[in-house]
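dumping this here so i dont lose it
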C-alpha cells in the first residue's frame, strides 16, 4: 500500500509530530511505501494567486477556469504538480493536524486550495440530464482512501451530540464530504485525540497502541457510508435528496449518509 501523509503542525516535537512519526514507522514496518508532505517544513505557500498558473492566468484572475487551463497545459507550479503526483501515487492519504478554530490549520486549507485544481479534483466528467459531473463518489481520486488524524484541545463531551462545540462528525463533515468525498475518495472514520493539551506522558502508550491499531487496519476499515451523487439517491439537476430516502428523524448532514 502506498500512503501519503499530509502533516500540518509547526512543531516537530508536538503530539501531532509524534503521531506522524509513529504512522511512518508503523506503516513502513508493515511493508508499506510512505511519502510525507510536511507543510511547515516545506514552507508551503498557502495562498492561491496568479503565480500558480503562469501563462494560463488571466486578467482578471478566474481561479477555476485558470487553474484548469494550467493543469491541462502543464503550467501549474512545480510544488503543486508534485503534490498532485503524490495523490495519484497514493492508495491512502492520512491527514495529520490539530483542530484549530473548528477546522484545519490555514496552511493545510491552502494546500487543498492550490492542489485540488479544476480538471484535477473537480470539474471532471459528463454533465447531462442524468449525471452532474463525476463527483461525490466518483472522480479523479476514486478508489483511494483517506483518514483524518486530528487532535482537539477539548474533552470528548464538548464534541458530542449535546456538546457546546457540536458533534465532531459535523465539524469534520466539510472536510470529509466536501473536500475528500467530492473527488471520489472513500473516507474512513476519523482518529480523534480529545483533551490533547492535557495528555499526560503516562497516557501516551495507550494512545500510541490505539493509533497503531487504526493504521494496521486501514485496508479493512469500512468507510463512512456517504451517498453517491449519480447513483439514484438525488434528483438531478437540483441535487436534492429524493423524498423518503432519509431515515426517520434524520436531518442536516446526516441526510447524506446511508
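and the seq i came up w/
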Amino acid at each position: 500500500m502506498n500512503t501519503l501523509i499530509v502533516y500540518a503542525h509547526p512543531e516537530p516535537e508536538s503530539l501531532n509530530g509524534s503521531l506522524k512519526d509513529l504512522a511512518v514507522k508503523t506503516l513502513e514496518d508493515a511493508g508499506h511505501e510512505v511519502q510525507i508532505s510536511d507543510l511547515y517544513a516545506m514552507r508551503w505557500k498557502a495562498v492561491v494567486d496568479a503565480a500558480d498558473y503562469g501563462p494560463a492566468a488571466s486578467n482578471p484572475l478566474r481561479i477555476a477556469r485558470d487553474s484548469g487551463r494550467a493543469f491541462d497545459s502543464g503550467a501549474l507550479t512545480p510544488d503543486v504538480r508534485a503534490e498532485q503526483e503524490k495523490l495519484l501515487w497514493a492508495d491512502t492519504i492520512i491527514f495529520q493536524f490539530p483542530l484549530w478554530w473548528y477546522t484545519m490549520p490555514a496552511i493545510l486549507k491552502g494546500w487543498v486550495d492550490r492542489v485540488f485544481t479544476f480538471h484535477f479534483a473537480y470539474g471532471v466528467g459528463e454533465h447531462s440530464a442524468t449525471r452532474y459531473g463525476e463527483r461525490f463518489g466518483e472522480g479523479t481520486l476514486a478508489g483511494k482512501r483517506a483518514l483524518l488524524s486530528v487532535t482537539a484541545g477539548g474533552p470528548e463531551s464538548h464534541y458530542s451530540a449535546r456538546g457546546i462545540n457540536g458533534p465532531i462528525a459535523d465539524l469534520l463533515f466539510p472536510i470529509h464530504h466536501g473536500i475528500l468525498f467530492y473527488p471520489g475518495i472513500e473516507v474512513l472514520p476519523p482518529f480523534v485525540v480529545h483533551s490533547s493539551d492535557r495528555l499526560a506522558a503516562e497516557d501516551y502508550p495507550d494512545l500510541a497502541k490505539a493509533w497503531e491499531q487504526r493504521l494496521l487496519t486501514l485496508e479493512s476499515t469500512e468507510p463512512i457510508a456517504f451517498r453517491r451523487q449519480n447513483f439514484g439517491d438525488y434528483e438531478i439537476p437540483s441535487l436534492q435528496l429524493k423524498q423518503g430516502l432519509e431515515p426517520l428523524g434524520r436531518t442536516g448532514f446526516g441526510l447524506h449518509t446511508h
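The radius of gyration is 19 Å.
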